[in-house]
Amino acid sequence: MHSLLAFAIFGVDWFFIRPQLVLGLALGGVYALSGVGIVVLYRATGVLNVAFGAIGAAGALIAYWMIYNQGWPEWLGFTVCVLFGGVVNLAYGVTVGAAFAPRDPLVKMMGTLALALILLGLMTWRAPIGGAIVRLLPLPSSKHVYQILGAGVTLTQILALALALAITVVTTIFLRVTALGTAMRALANDREITATLGVPVRQVEASAWFGSGIVCGAAGLILPDLLVSLDYGSLTFVVVIASLAAALIGRLESLWWTLVGGIAIGFAQGALAPYISLSRYRQSVPFVVAIVALLWMSRRRVVVISRTAQ
Fold it and tell me: How far apart, in Å, are the Cα atoms of 81 and each of 10, 73, 91, 140, 236?
């Protein structure tokens, strides 16, 4: 019945749609997770970090090297991947990021773009892509498969969505309840006034850089398992484009709209995958979803302006 209904509506058998939708939701969870990290950092420092994907990909590549080239335990490689994101982000934030703090937002963003290109160049130098080399970084959770609504769902896919939701909830509570979270929100409103009130601005910013980097490392660890490939070139750009679109849907302020935006982008990409004629346009989905969402959310403002003009 499901197959006939799906074929009548979509022209594709339900058997082929289900796995792609499940994968799309899982990818959407990673996009949302990355988007939340970008929003938190932007709200605290005013920096739009476009090196998010490159940092996560570099951490995943280091984990791959430790596990499969050096024979280290998997848990240690995975831990290093996550911590690598936090350490690199923190190191950039307290050095280059601090120097760029009084500069325009565009200059701050270009600084992170330079970091992304440096990391991408180092990865290409030390681990070139091509030939018969296929790098895989499967997580132990991918071995556990469950049947949900007739589709096989791995534990990694479930964890991707659950982690995105958990991080959003925890971060929202953290920003509203804790003293450090209050300081981060104050920095987002006015850095100079916050500093004059005795808030240790540098320490608060360092915490935001490190926390955002940890999220970045976690995303870099999960995504290769979902994509069944550790292609650091794709990871660098796929994550940053989709997560930035999710953050824009949240207007770089709302964590919950960022969560919704990330999941919507992933779901839309999964829905297009079964169609050969449309799958080539999957990479443009983040832009389309972000534009539609922003137009929809700004519709009241447009009406108010037009009435005032009259």
Answer: 40, 13, 16, 15, 15
- Cα 41 from Cα 29, distance rounded (Å): 19
Q: Which of 160, 215, 204 is nearest to 24 (CA)?
A: 160
pLDDT in tens, 103-154: 888 889 999 999 999 999 999 888 887 655 778 889 999 888 888 766 778 8
43: containing domain:
18-127+134-309
C-alpha span between 127 and 187 (Å, rounded): 39
Its pTM stands at 0.85
Under the banding of pLDDT at 50, 70 and 90, the label for residue 279 is low
Q: What is the pLDDT of residues 2-58, one digit of tens each?
A: 444 444 444 455 556 777 788 888 889 999 999 999 999 998 888 899 999 999 999
295: domain CATH number? 1.10.3470
